[in-house]
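Minutes, project check-in
Item: structure for the 258-residue chain
Input as provided by the requester:
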Amino acid sequence: MTYCLGILSPEGLVLASDSRSNAGVDQVARVCKLSLLTVPGERVIAILGAGNLATTQSVVGQLHQAQGGGVVGQDVNIAPTMFDIATMVGDKLRAVIARDGSYVERYGDATASFIVGGQIRGGPHRLFEIYSAGNFVEAFPRYNFLQIGETKYGKPILDRALGSDSPLDEAAKLALLSFDATIRSNLSVGLPIDILRYRADSFSTADLATLDEDNAYWSALRDGYSDGLSALIDSLPAPPPHWGPDAAPRDYQENAVA
């Protein structure tokens, strides 16, 4: 299992993935799941993959091989929009599953999913989630984050704190707290975290980082959040000694023993 997250901010994109890959309790590895296909000054495309590792690596590998080849529908360097990039990823995913799926199914699940985000000069920064069937949805201001993999533990803080107008730095901070919640609750998601904070119209991947347990910011963020939650819980009122008649169960009957 893995966890990948993309956030659409008015200021840009945050794209992050964990690095744990496991095929059983005794086959655990660290694998980078964030791939970049860029043309300096013209386009930045980030692809995050979850699911069958062989499938995701095959899809991304074929896209890298075709990059710069000039074939329409295959070469990300000449795709006119991010929508076309998402279509290409979905098409590659379908082709890989069609080729390998029947061979893999006797051993496990061959499917995968992707988050694709980026910007092509002349267009806006955009964010997509590609499903295992190859179709996809796009993020927009009212629904501005997309998750794949182990999503449930990291979703509540995003639902509660991430807004459509959240600045890029705030979105990056919430993304990391979402990963902290997931790592605490699920052993199949683990450090390091690869995170790209892409500022719109910069066409730069300079703000790409890999955070592990020794990273000072990561440690300060998760410790501060944990301490803050504990302090908040301590500040909340305790339950009253008696709930009162309005809180009594409507259908409860006490069975007294004489």
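Outcome recorded: The chain has five helices and twelve strands.
No further action items on this chain.
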